Amino acid sequence: MLMSVQQLGARGGLLEPTLEAVRQHLASQRSGQEATVVRASANPPQVTPLCDEDLDEDHVQSLFASGEGLYVMPFPWEREFFVDARKPNESGAAPLSGSY
Questions:
Q1: How crowded is the C-beta side of 99, counted as CA atoms within 13 Å?
Q2: What is the rounded CA–CA span in Å between residue 24 and residue 74?
Q3: DSSP character at residue 15
Q4: Which has more pLDDT, 94 or 40?
């Protein structure tokens, strides 16, 4: 799955990066919803999906430790996502148009 943090932020699609904000989001939604915690500053970056039942685990609080590059986004299962992208071939060249 590909998501743009910059575009989600511009559209108001990010949650406050706190455990309490995730709890409130999951409590306000119907079952089956998730939130995704992204720590972009880690090496390698960390991506952790959270559901209601995950919030009781001890390690969850550590996901929200202070630091830069922490983003939290809701994952709406009822929406479809499309990506406009081109995959380069073995030599690194990508087509200018058309599908493949």
A1: 2
A2: 11
A3: B
A4: 40
- pTM for the model stands at 0.68
Which tokens belong to 100?
């493949």
The C-alpha atoms of residue 37 and residue 72 are separated, in whole angstroms, by 5
3-state class of 94 per DSSP?
A: coil
- Identify the CA nearest to 14 among candidates 29, 45, 35, 28: 35
Number of residues assigned to the chain:
100
Q: What is the pLDDT of residues 18-31, one digit of tens each?
A: 999 999 988 886 65
Element (H, E) at 72: strand 70-75
Residue 49 to residue 32: CA distance in whole angstroms: 12
Q: Mean of the pLDDT values across residues 1-6?
A: 73
